[in-house]
Structure formats: C-alpha cells, structure tokens
Design brief:
The complex is a heterotetramer of chains A (384), B (121), C (578) and D (224). Chain A is of the alpha+beta class and 384 residues long. Helices cover 36% and strands 19% of the residues of chain A. Chain A has nine helices and 14 strands. In chain A, the strands form four sheets. Chain A has a five-stranded mixed β-sheet, with no helix packed on it. In chain A, a hairpin with a 5-residue loop joins β13 and β14. The longest helix of chain A is centred in the N-terminal third of the chain and has 31 residues. Chain B is flat and about 60 Å long. Chain C is mostly helical and 578 residues long. Chain C has a two-stranded antiparallel ribbon with strand order 1-2. Chain C contains 15 helices and two strands. In chain D, strands 1-2 form a two-stranded antiparallel sheet. In chain D, α2 packs antiparallel against α6. Chain D is globular. The chains are: A alpha+beta (384), B mainly alpha (121), C mainly alpha (578), D mainly alpha (224). At the A-C interface, α2, α3, α4, β4 and β9 of A face α4, β1, β2, α9 and α10 of C.
C-alpha cells in the first residue's frame, strides 16, 4: 500500500494508457458499416491505427515505468549523457519507416479518389441554406450549365443584373444551354441512386460552403459557391442513409439533412422516370397575370422562398401551398382564417400571430400598397 | 563594382540611381511597344527583379551586410513562392470549372473609355 | 567561446520609473508586462471556458436550456475557439512567458525596446476590448461563423452576427496582430542581439528556443491573417468581391460576383497552421525545461531538440492545406500536403522520444510542475498520433468535420499547451513573487484537470469514428448513432463541468499564495538557467544589478559526474562545480 | 570573432560563426536596425499576401480584366500616352530613394544640415507621390467610373485590388513621410549629435522598402 502511494503518479499514468486500450477494445463506437467501394479508406485507417496505437502504448508505458523506476532518492544520481547519436538516429529511422508505411496506402487511395472512372454516372448535388436539391443530366448525359445572374450589364453608373435563381428556375439553369433541357430536377432532399454503379457527385452551392456527406459512404467534399467540386463512389448495398452537411453553413447547419436511398437498378429507374425534366417544368409553368407575376417577383427578391415553400413542404416557415382561406391554429391555441387581413398582418408584424409549431424568427417587412396587393394576389394564386 | 562601391559609396549611389531610371524606362518600353505573351512577362519580371535587387543591395546596404543578416532576411520569403505557385495552379482549376459548368465565356478585353481610344497598340 | 564583445545593455543607463503608475500600470519592465499579459489572457480564457461549458450542456441536454438558441450556440463556438487560440494561448505563451523568460534567460536587462513592449500589451488589451464589444446588446451579438471565419457564410445573413459581430472580430484580430508584431519584434531582437556574455544560441534553454521560433513564425504568418481580415472587412462593408462569388443568400441574389472563397481558406491556413506551432513550440520548450529540471537530468539530445524546433517551424509553412483536404481545392494538392504533413511527424516524434529518454536513468522529483509536464507528454502523444490520421489525406476524408477533429485539436493544442502553461506558471511563480504555490491545491487541480480532460477528449475521438459531425447545435437524432453515444456525450459534459469549476482552484492558489505562500528563496527547484541566478528575488528592474552575468555552460548540467551538488548553474565557470 | 580574419572566411563559415557566437548574432548591427529589418520581413509577407491574392482572383476571373495601360493613360499635348502618370510617380519614388540614400550617407559623416535637407527633400517627393496617387484615384473614380465594388470595363476586382493595394502602399508612403519629417527635424535639433545617426539609416531602410514594394506593384499591376 505504501508503495502504491509512493508510486501513484506512475501507476495512474500507466492506468491511463491501459485504460485507453481497454476503452478502445470494448468501445461500441466504431466506424459505421461501410456502404461503398471505399474499403481501402478503412484499411488505411487500420494501418495507421495499429502503428500509432503500438507507439502510444510503448511510449506511454515506458514513461510510466521510468517514473516508477527512477523516482527521486536523496542519494540517487541521474545518468549524465547529453546525447546518444546512435540511439537518436535509430529512432529517427524507425519513425520515418512508420511514416512511410502509413503514408503510402493513403496516397494510393487518394490517387483513386481524385480520378473518376470514365463510366461514372453524374449526379449534381445542389446545396442551399439549409436543404439539398439534386439534378441528373438526363438523356444526353451532360449537365446543363447554370448561372446565378443573367443579363449582367456594366455601365459607368453601376452594374445591373437579373437574378437567375428564382422560384420559377430554382436550379438557375442557363437559358442558352440546350444541354439543360433534359436535365432531371429533384427539388427535394430525397435522393435515389442505383446500386453498383460508379457515381460522380458534382457539387454546387448557391450560397455558402456546404459539405455533402453520408457517413456510410465515407467520401465527402465541400461545395464551394463560385466553382464546382466533385468526388465519386460506388454504392455496395441498398438501404436508406442519412445525408449530413459537414461544413458549418450558418444557423441552420444542423438541420441541413436529407435522405439517400440506394436502390436496385430497376427501382432507381422507376423513380427517376417519375421526376420532371427542366423542359417539362418550363412547359408546366402557366403564364401568370401581371399582378401575380409581380407578386412572385417581390417574393423572390425578398427571399421569402428561403423559408416558405410553394410545394407543401415545411421549411422554416409554413408553406404557402393551400394557405389561403384555410383555418389555421396559432401557437396560443386560437384559430384564425388565413385571409388578406391575416396575411398582411403577418408580413408587417410577423411574430404576433405565429402559426403553431413555428418559431418567431421572421423579420418584419414593409411594402408599398401596390406591392403588398401583388404579393397577396400571388399567395392567393399559389394556394389554388 | 562592389569593390568600388565600398570605397566610393556616393558614386555607387548615383550609378544605381541612374540604373533604376534605365530599368524603369526599359520596363515602361515593354508596355509601350506592346510586347505580348511570355516575352512580355519575362521582360517585366527581369526588370522588376533587377530594380528590386539594386534597391536592396545598394540603397538598403544589403551588399555590405554580413552574410548572416543577408540569409536571415532573404531566405524566409522563399516559402511565399510555394504559396504563389500553388495558388496559381489552383486558380486555373477553379477558372476551368467556371467555364465548364457555369457556361462563362471569356470576355474580350473591353473597349477603353472614349477619351483613350487612340492609344497606340 | 567567451568573447570580448561587451553587451550593449551594459553600456546604457536604465531609467527607473518614479511613480507608482510608471512602475505597475504603464510599466516598461518586462516582468510587469508579462503579468499584465498573463492576467488579461487568463481572464478572457475563463470567459471562453464558461462558453464551452454552456455548449457542452446544450450538446448533452438540449432541453435543459431553452434560452440557448442556435445563434447563441454558434456564437459560442466561434468566440470559444478564437479566444482560446489567439487571445489566451498565443497571448499567454508569447506575451506572458515570452516577456518573462526571454530577458531573464538570455541575461538581458529588459527587452530591447521596453516602450514598444509596453505598447504591445496595451494594444493587446484594446484588441480584447474590441472583441468583447460584440456582446453589447443591440449589435446582434458576436459572429457565429466558427473560428475559421470561412466566407461567404461569415458575412451573409444566414449566420448570426454577420454585420457587427464579424466586424468587431476582424478589427480585433487586426489590432491583435499589431500588438503581437510589436511584442514579437522585441522578443526576436532581444534573443538575437541582446544576450549576455558567453550566452550563445546553443546555450539557450529550450524555452527561449521555443519562443524564438514561435515568434518568428508569428511574424511571418500573421500577415496572411491580417490581409484576409482586411479583405473580408472590405467585402462586408463596401461590397468588394475578393472572397465572394455570385450567390443567392436566403433567396436574395447579392451583388457580389467573381470572388474566390477558397482564397480565404488558403490565406487563413497559411496563417493558421503556423499558428498551431506558435502555440505548440513554446509549450515544447517550457516542457523540455520542466522535465530536465525536475528529473534532475540533462535534456536528452539538446541539439536535436533545437533542430527539431527549427525544422518544424520551417515545415509549418508548407503544410497549410492539410486543413483543406475536403475543401474542394485542387485535388492534386492532397499528395503534396499529405506528404509534407507526415514528414513533420518525424521531428515531432523525436521531441517526444527525447522527453521520455530524459526520464530514463533520471532522478525524478514528482513536483507539481513536473506532473503537468509529464501529463503534457502523454496528451501530446495522443494528440500527435491522431494528427497522423488527419494528416494522411485519405483518412481525413471520413474524419474531417467530425468530433474526431474536435478531439484531436483539443488534445494537441488545447489541453497540451494549457498543461504546459499551468506547469510553467507553477515553475516560475516563485521567481516572480518570491513565494511558492500551494502543493495540495496544485495536486488537486492537476489531477482533476488532467484526468478530466482525458476523459473528455479521449472518448470523443470515437464519436468521430461513428460520424458525429462537429458544430451541430443538436446532434443525437440521427439513425446511425447507437443510443449509447448519447450516454457518452452526457459523461463528457459532466466531466467538462467538473473540470471547468476546478480551474477556480488554480485561481485561488495564485491569489492565496501571493499573500500566504511559503517563501521561496532564490532557487527553490535547484535549476541552472539564468533566471534563477538573479541577485534578488523577485528580480528588480534591470534584473542583474550593475553587471550582467557571464555564462559559461549550457543550462542542463544536472548530476554532472564529480560535482558536489546535483546542479551547476550556467554562471559557474567550466571546471568548477558550484 | 576577430574582424581581421573576416576576409579569409567563406560566407558559410561566417554564418555558422555568427549564429554560434554569444551576445549578438548580427554583428555590428544596432538593435533598431535589426528590428527594422525583421519588421520589413514581416511587411514583405503582408504585401506578398496582397499580391498573391490579386494573382489568384485575377486568374480565377472569367470576366474581362481591363488593359491597365489604357485605363491609366493620360493625355499629354493632345496625345494619350499610356501609363504617363505612373511613369512620373515611379521616377519620383526612385528619386526619393536616391535622396534618402544620400541622406544616410551624409548621416555617416555626421553632416546634419545636409541630412536634414536631403530627408526633407525625400519627404517632399514622397508627399508629391501621394498627391499624384490621389489625382490618379480621382481620375479613375470620376472619369472612368471605377469603384472598389464595380468597374464598367469588366471584373469588379480590378478596382477592388487597385484601391486596396495602392491604398495600403499609399498609407505606407504617408506614414513614411511623417516618419521622415520627425527624424529630419530631430536631426536638425541635434538630438542625435552625441549618439549615432543610425536612426537615419533605419528610416532609410523603411523608405527604400516602400520604394521596393512599388517596384512590384508597378510590374504586376500596371504592366501585367
């Protein structure tokens, strides 16, 4: 007992090392079961894990032992030896060898990672605060070009432009690129992909940095606005997987999730056939009355669609689909009919009568009378 | 020239002063005669480095310092070359992705404002 | 090696301040400036510690604090990170330790330009005040962009504090860089040009070497941050598009066009990676000295230790983009940066071997500073080997932006340098005040802090293996996490709270011992380096009296065969033993 | 370290000896000068970061980049001459470097009146450089419609980088002018009579550095 107390530092440090090993062995928290071709990543992790793990245990236990063995004695003397070139050289060499063994598979795997197989099917992942959209290249196999602004005009007095990414063109397709017409647009955060096909994920962001990540796939890459990034993988098992955003993208970063289904080829094709192409979407857009179009434009320019959807999904705020004239429950339990009076009130003083289940996050907006009228008309049209 | 400089510094100053004028005029002429492409860039960089070298060596007395100070000051900026090279390498990559995926076209050099239309080129 | 060169400092008179304010407030004495730096850094550090505990509560018990909304969470991670890295660690290791040890260990009277040195502190204080201005109600709070401040989100509406928060942050950083430059020029010039007789660079204690290399890195790395801060302020305030391409922020198409967000990341990490070593190298130095003094043995392989520091310093400028493996940069960069990064592992490993080999055949006194130093070695090994995971490009792909990264950098540049700081304070407090710190309090604080932080960060790596992403306000509703992960998270939070509160022990110890501590004497640890050879304790203004000391040997002559005591101070001539 | 043996040593030996000696590493270099050199090294990193950023953004840019020699041309005798003003500014800065170098030289000889007038002339030349820069900015803003955030001739970053980099350089020049004047008047008042005139050399180092930066800005911004 006396001895244990004397050497408690050495013992505790040793226990920390041994405890770490035990924790590692018993830990139920390991890599998720892999669902892609990137087993080589897991292998490289294992190699590094073994080499560094052995080094950690050896160094830690040696230290604990030294503290035990060479504890201070009044009469004790330490060994005076400033340098030991032979020992130091050997340690350097052994470390270098270890580093090479760890680095080599890493570089080989990286070479594989950055070179997309030529038969890969492209899918574009399109990130925005704080949800995902997807686009397939369609029959021609080429993703149409996109742009954020159109008709950019630079003059002495300033630069003018028109937004190209609007509620009528949520993907920002370029008018002048015919490759875009057959592109299949998926305006929801649910993605289906076929099993056992090489897939090149083309990453595009419309606002800030995001990062498309499915832990079971292992691969990830940031999407950077103003350029295109990519990675590739091949799904190896079917199932439902969660998509996460892995790059801080503002206050809604943690809600930026989605679902990825890996289907068999037939299921995938069935699903894909049911989706609309850009040409179909354009064709389905009825010409709107001028006042309704104006309302849509106002909603676009003020960023209303960042929180209010037109397709029935709830994002940050309630959807506008079917809102008009409906009886809605407020957060205090009262009910109100969504008529013109309520809509206007909710725009001017948005946090007074909150719809149940939504937070008080909207900032008040002030519009001219004619603008407000157009907006209300647009809401009315949208509901029908 | 170095030996002369240490004995007659003032003369060296005037000489370098004159040389700096010459190099400035030379690099100016590169533009005036509208050399293009790699030759232009090469000449610009050469004259730039010559000017910089003379300023540092003579006006800033680097030539007369001990090699200890010279290396301590001139070696660390070498890491900036790595930064420059890699960023240039990547810039091309990002540029290409804008051309391919955003359909950006390389715009021609714009017309200068009317008052300068008659620049010799 | 002694030469005829007379130290310039001996030829110029020193002007002693006359007033109390001149002595203790606007003091030009490096020791007072060190204390000012230290106290300010620790004060902001406590703020950042408090923020971290709030975040931990939110992560483990999301329902517990209703008022702690998303914005507060993201603002807290940002302020916590930035304060800890810049305003605590950099300021403490270089501002406090640098100021205190450099003149004393080099045998100088003071820094070469004491007035500039004083300005350095006051400008640093100004930067801290500007940083905290963001908390004034009505300004929208501090920025929530994460300490890396990546555009475009930093200055777009989807991020809290996208207006004043980020402005004060960037302004504060720019001011801090000015402060650091003023201090850093002083440290470098003092080390290079104002040593005492016989003090060659290769006789300097490793603490000074660590501070020297780190300061040099700082002077060359902070410019990149300075430039990117200026460019980002311009992007925000007058609408330039350096980092801003055309984007649609929350539905609104912004006027920006054609900028390159990756450029910011490159500049930031061109600063940011050397910054890691700005924090680590002084800690390396301090720990080397602590281990050698308290193990009563010369540091093993001194020359290799010095060269490792220098080599790490140089390499740190060409590894920056290993922080950007998943950033979407040019894919081929992965090869280059993975290779350079893993090369850095070699000199770093050598340092670890040498610390441990110093213990071998030593005569180890387990004093409290030694405990901190030993635990530093262990946490640093842990942080270092997980660095090998993240530096190897392909392994970084699944692990980046998960809790593995959080655990790794907290281990390697959070806990480790903090332990070195605690050890260093403990070691030099007797010289600074003339009194010893309380051992019992010190041991309690040590064990709680060391074991606590280990329990916090070691299991956290495994959360990263599962794939728990970092910087998530709410975490545990994903299908692929085992339910037990939430339990682990709660354990981490409880431990973090205990460790957080335990830091008060250290504060109490510092204050209490100042008044009631045991008198220390001139050299309580039996150490060799020059600071223990001052004629008075605490050293007076000018440190050395009329004549600077003369150095005859390196700082590590412990248990030299044939000597009567187990240490020979640096001022003892060769051939004599005491 | 005997000075006499100096000439026999190779540079490498000198470097090794200096770094392994005691007291000072940079032999015969006063503190102030050492500090200024290291500061300039740090400042080099600032300006290089600016210029590298400029390179990266310009190379990534798909919008047109205006032809600087046309944008910055000036009419002389009814004929537009490209880069005329810039050429004059360059010559002024070079001349100021020359006068500064002379001032340092006179400082070594302790001819303080000469030092004063040469530094004063340097400051005047520096001030006129800043004045011309102001003129150039006015012309660019008023006549060509270039702003930091817009540019009728193409990429907005043209103006952004131009104003930022030349502005930052202009700040250095302005600070240098103030610095020069303070030192010049102190020299005249005899503040350094009993010590050394190293402060003149230190000021000179800073001033030449400002000139040096202009060499790079001239090449990369106006000629490239």
């Amino acid at each position: 007992m006396r001895k244990i107390l004397d050497h408690h530092v050495a013992i505790l440090l040793g226990l920390v090392v041994i405890g770490s090993v035990i924790f590692n062995v018993w830990s139920p928290w390991q890599f998720t079961e892999i669902a892609s071709n990137w087993e080589f990543i897991d292998f490289t992790v294992k190699v590094t894990w073994w080499i560094t793990g052995v080094a950690f245990v050896l160094l830690g236990l040696f230290m604990a032992w030294a503290i035990w063995r060479y504890k201070y004695h009044e009469s004790g003397e330490s060994h005076y030896e400033p340098e030991h070139p032979v020992l130091e050289s050997w340690l350097t060499i052994i470390t270098s060898i270890g580093v090479v063994i760890m680095l080599a598979p890493g570089l080989i795997a990286w070479d594989d990672y950055v070179q997309v197989p030529s038969d890969a099917m492209e899918v574009e992942v399109y990130g925005e605060q704080w949800t995902w959209k997807f686009r397939f290249p369609g029959e021609d196999g080429i993703l149409g070009a996109t742009t954020v602004k159109k008709n950019v005009d630079r003059t002495f007095d300033g630069t003018t432009y028109e937004p190209n990414i609007t509620s009528l063109n949520p993907f920002g397709m370029r008018d002048d690129d015919p490759h875009g017409d057959d592109d299949i647009l998926i305006a929801s955060n649910v993605l289906h992909l076929p099993l056992d096909r090489n897939i090149k994920v083309v990453l595009r962001s419309k606002d800030v940095l995001h990062d498309f990540w499915v832990p079971e796939i292992r691969a990830k890459m940031d999407m950077v606005p103003g350029m295109i990034t990519y990675f590739w993988f091949r799904p190896t098992r079917t199932g439902e997987f969660e998509i996460l955003c892995a790059e801080l993208c503002g206050r809604g970063h943690h809600i930026m999730r989605g679902t990825m289904y890996i289907d068999t080829q037939e299921d995938f094709e069935t699903w894909l056939d049911a989706q609309v192409t850009w040409a179909e979407m354009k064709a389905g857009q009825k010409p709107e009355e001028p006042i309704v179009a104006k309302g849509r434009q106002i909603a676009d320019q003020n960023g209303c669609f960042a929180c209010h959807s037109l397709d029935g999904t709830s994002v940050v705020g309630p959807t506008w689909k079917g809102l008009w004239g409906r009886e809605i429950t407020l957060s205090d339990g009262a009910t109100v009919i969504a008529d013109e009076e309520y809509i206007v009130e909710s725009i001017v003083e948005p946090n007074v009568k909150l719809v149940e289940g939504f937070g008080s996050v909207m900032t008040p907006y002030a519009f001219e009378d004619d603008e407000m009228e157009a907006l209300v008309r647009f809401l009315q049209e949208t509901a029908e | 020239m170095a030996e002369v400089g240490q004995q007659h510094p003032i003369k060296v100053y005037f000489l370098v002063w004159a040389l700096l004028f010459v190099f400035s005029i030379a690099s100016y002429l590169v533009d005036f005669f509208a050399f293009e492409g790699h030759l232009r860039w090469f000449l610009i960089v050469v004259f730039m480095l010559l000017k910089a070298g003379f300023i540092v060596a003579v006006f800033m007395h680097m030539k007369w310092e001990r090699p200890t100070l010279i290396t301590a000051i001139l070696v660390p900026p070498l890491v900036l070359i790595v930064l420059m090279y890699l960023l240039a390498y990547e810039a091309d990559y990002a540029w290409a992705s804008r051309i391919v995926y955003f359909g950006d076209v390389v715009e021609p050099i714009p017309e200068p404002p009317p008052s300068h239309a008659a620049v010799p080129h | 090696m002694a030469t005829a060169e007379i130290p310039y400092q001996e030829t110029v008179p020193l002007h002693h301040p006359k007033t109390w304010i001149g002595k203790y407030v606007f003091s030009q004495d490096h020791k007072v400036i060190a204390v000012q730096y230290g106290i300010t850094a620790m004060a902001v550090g406590l703020v950042a510690l408090f923020l971290s505990d709030l975040m931990r509560i939110q992560i483990a018990f999301p329902e517990f604090m209703d008022w702690f909304v998303e914005d507060y969470y993201y603002q807290s991670i940002t302020m916590h990170g930035m304060i800890m890295v810049i305003y605590l660690l950099t300021a403490f290791l270089l501002g406090a330790f640098g100021n205190f040890t450099v003149p004393l260990m080099c045998g100088a009277r003071d820094m070469v330009f004491p007035f500039v040195n004083m300005l350095s502190y006051w400008v640093y204080l100004l930067s801290v005040i500007i940083l905290l201005l963001a908390y004034i109600p009505g300004l929208g709070g501090p920025t929530g962009a994460g300490w890396t401040l990546y555009p475009p989100q930093t200055i777009t509406e989807g991020t809290p504090g996208a207006d004043w928060g980020i402005t004060t942050m960037l302004a504060s950083l720019a001011v801090f860089i000015v402060a650091f430059t003023m201090g850093g020029l002083n440290y470098i010039t003092t080390i290079l040009q104002a040593r005492t007789r016989g003090m060659s660079l290769m006789r300097l204690p490793l603490t000074v070497w660590g501070i020297f290399v780190a300061t040099f890195l700082g002077l060359l790395a902070f410019p990149a941050l300075f430039v990117s801060a200026i460019m980002m302020i311009l992007d925000l305030k007058i609408g330039t598009s350096f980092f801003m391409p055309a984007i649609v922020s929350l539905g609104q198409t912004l006027a920006y066009d054609g900028g390159q967000p990756l450029l910011f990341q490159h500049l930031f990490w061109f600063f940011g990676h050397p910054e890691v070593y700005i924090v680590a190298l002084p800690a390396f130095g301090v720990v080397s000295d602590l281990i050698s003094v308290h193990a009563r043995k010369n540091i093993f392989g001194y020359r290799l230790m010095v060269w490792a520091l220098v080599f790490i310093g140089i390499l740190s400028f060409i590894v920056w983009a290993h922080h950007m493996f998943v950033a979407g940069m040019h894919p081929y960069f992965g090869f280059f940066f993975a290779t350079t990064t893993l090369i850095i592992a070699v000199p770093t490993a050598i340092k670890v071997y040498n610390w441990i080999l110093t213990l071998w055949k030593a005569n180890i006194k387990l004093t409290v500073p030694m405990l901190y130093a030993l635990s530093f070695v262990l946490t640093f090994i842990m942080g270092g080997i997980t660095g090998l995971f993240l530096g190897n490009v392909i392994i970084d792909i699944p692990l980046s932006d998960t809790y593995f990264v959080v655990a790794h950098f907290h281990m390697v540049m959070g806990v480790s340098p903090i332990l070195a700081i605690f050890g260093g304070i403990y070691h030099w407090y007797p010289k600074l005040t003339g009194r010893m710190l309380n051992d019992t309090l010190g041991k309690w604080h040590f064990w709680i802090t060391f074991l606590g932080t280990y329990i916090i960060y070691f299991p956290m790596h495994y959360l990263g293996f599962i794939g728990v992403p970092r910087r998530y306000y709410e975490n545990f509703d994903s299908s692929f996490y085992p339910a037990s992960a939430q339990l682990l998270n709660e354990v981490i939070t409880y431990t973090a709270l205990v460790v957080g509160v335990a830091q008060l022990l250290y504060v109490i110890n510092l204050v209490h011992s100042y008044f009631y501590g045991k008198p220390a004497g001139d050299n309580p640890w039996g150490a060799n380096s020059l600071e223990w050879c001052t004629p008075e304790t605490p050293p007076g203004h000018g440190n050395w009296g009329d004549r600077l000391p003369t150095v005859h040997r390196w700082a590590y002559d412990y248990n030299v065969p044939g000597s009567e005591k187990d240490f020979i101070p640096q001022t003892v001539p060769q051939g004599q033993t005491s | 370290m005997a000075e006499a043996a100096e000439t026999d040593q190779g540079p490498l030996t000198t470097i090794v000896n200096d770094w392994s000696s005691d007291v000072t590493t940079f032999k015969a270099v006063p503190w102030g000068k050492a500090m200024m050199w290291i500061f300039l090294l740090s400042d080099t990193f600032i300006f290089t970061s600016f210029l590298v950023s400029y390179m990266a953004v310009r190379m990534t840019q798909t919008d047109a980049w205006p032809e600087p020699s046309e944008v910055f041309s000036l009419e002389a005798f009814g004929v537009p001459v490209p880069l005329l003003l810039i050429a004059i500014m360059t010559f002024i800065l070079i001349t100021s470097s020359g006068t500064m170098a002379m001032a340092v030289n006179m400082g070594y000889r302790k001819r303080k009146v000469a030092v004063f007038w040469l530094m004063f002339a340097t400051a005047l030349l520096g001030a006129s450089f800043v004045g011309m820069q102001a003129f150039e900015w006015t012309k660019l803003i008023g006549d060509e419609g270039v702003r930091a955030w817009q540019n009728p001739m193409g990429a907005a970053q043209f103006g952004s980088f131009f104003f930022m980099i030349t502005g930052f350089h202009g700040l250095h020049v302005s600070a240098g002018v103030v610095y020069l004047l303070i030192v010049a008047f102190r020299v005249l008042r005899g503040k350094y009579d009993n010590t050394s005139f190293e402060i003149v050399e230190i000021t000179g180092l800073y001033w030449h550095f400002v000139d040096l930066v202009w060499v790079f800005i001239f090449a990369f911004f106006y000629l490239w």
